[in-house]
Write the structure tokens for this entry.
Amino acid sequence: MAPTKSAIPAVDGWFTTGGSPTLMGSRCRTCGTYAFPRETYFCRNPECDSQEFEDVPLSRRGKIWSYTDARYQPPLPYRAADPYEPFCIAAVELAAEKMVVMGQVIPGVSVDDLSIGTEVELVTDVLYEDDDHQYLVWKWRPVSSDDHSGDAHG
Amino acid sequence: MADDKKVAVLGVGMHPWGKWGRNFVEYGLTAARAALADAGLEWRDVGFVSGADTIRNGYPGYVAGATFAQALGWTGARVASSYAACASGATAVAAARAQILAGLCDVALVVGADTTPKGFFAPVGGDRKDDPDWLRFHLLGATNPTYFALYARRRMELFGATENDFAAVKVKNARHGVANPNARYRAEVTTDEVLASPMVADPLRLLEICATSDGGAALVLSSTDFARRHAGAAGLVTIPAVSTVTPRFPQTVIEMPNFATDSAVAADGGPGSGFRRSIAHAAYEEAGISPEDVDVAEVYDLSSALELDWYEDIGLCKEGEAERLLRDGDTAVGGRIPVNPSGGLSCFGEAIPAQAIAQVCELVWQLRGQADGRQVEGARVGVTANQGLFGHGSSVIVSK
């Protein structure tokens, strides 16, 4: 029997995994400005000279600011499935953070299923795999009333 | 326009765009020699050489100024090399202009050239997990057209742009490019052909996304005093302004190669989406002119849809009116305010460090009345607009 591959994030510290995954951003302790990926050096607000940040989970839900798809296989270092399957990408507006965050949209969703303003929720999904691991990334999934899982591959 | 901010454009030159597959230095040299000949000057007359860098051709590309100076033959001229992604050429122009205005040299040569790989631009090699450009390909599969498509979809949603509008930009620029001997693509296309080309990043199709090209462009700039002595004051073409502005916080439009925008929580009511708009407006302000003074524009049509954004961002019309401008034929040669008479990136494909310089070459030919087959009649003021990745503004005013 083949051993089960362990699933690990494709990038360290950018998001949590599990039932209700979140992107991990930072918030400036002085002015409250968020950043994703996390800011660790200097606050990007030119009116703020803070160097202190707290790690914060970003809102799991947001509304699509814009979207597109990738009909052609992106070049390396994207590790495309063989055969290649086109996927959608969405830029999603997070209301509380007042920022827009990019992400792939889960497989099986086409641009015809999306529109600006569509509510989406953060999930994790397999980005690629090798002999030892499945590598996870965050993706956006359109919110439907009957589905509350945070784990697209599980 | 303030005379003390002007530098003269004595010569312009280009190596035709294509997919020639030769060393970029050759294209730069061809362009430089053409610009010097156009200026009626010798290489040894140049006091400052300003190279626009390419990152895809090893060290010679990173130190492009010295590479071109060496290839032309060492003369001891002062040198600078500029990298600012798509804005590299304008940054090299800005460096040369500052040298001239400071009185540090009379004559400067600006050169940019590139040799490009086929297909999507990919990040330079190696596993670089702290480089957002590497990470956006690795984690998102987000290519450059991904970002262009996000903007195009916004236009459709906010302003009612249609697939036919995006195709019409391509049709217009293709028509312009037919007459341009330096353009790579010199054939008219029909709306049907554009709309039949494969979808790359919805809603953008293959014929609406600029290719990557080889090419080279060069300018010979001088002080206006030198120019009057050398060539006389009649018909003198000058650059009264160069804008290399950065965004103002918070930048709320997603930009290549970022994963997220700035957060606006601490700066509500800030400039927000204004970066692209600020680029040309800073140049207008520096030149003491307004968009109404512009007769011709060269803007960065990385996608056909993006050209429409630029109409608004450089002030040719109000936000949401770009489609009407296009549909009315205002931006075609023969229209009220022609845009991309050269054929634009649509007909050139992008040779990154050369492209912003090529935009200036086209405006100079237009203002001199030498743009055969694509001439904007009576043009006296032109503007270029461009943006280098997420933070390098690039806009040059050319006037006579």
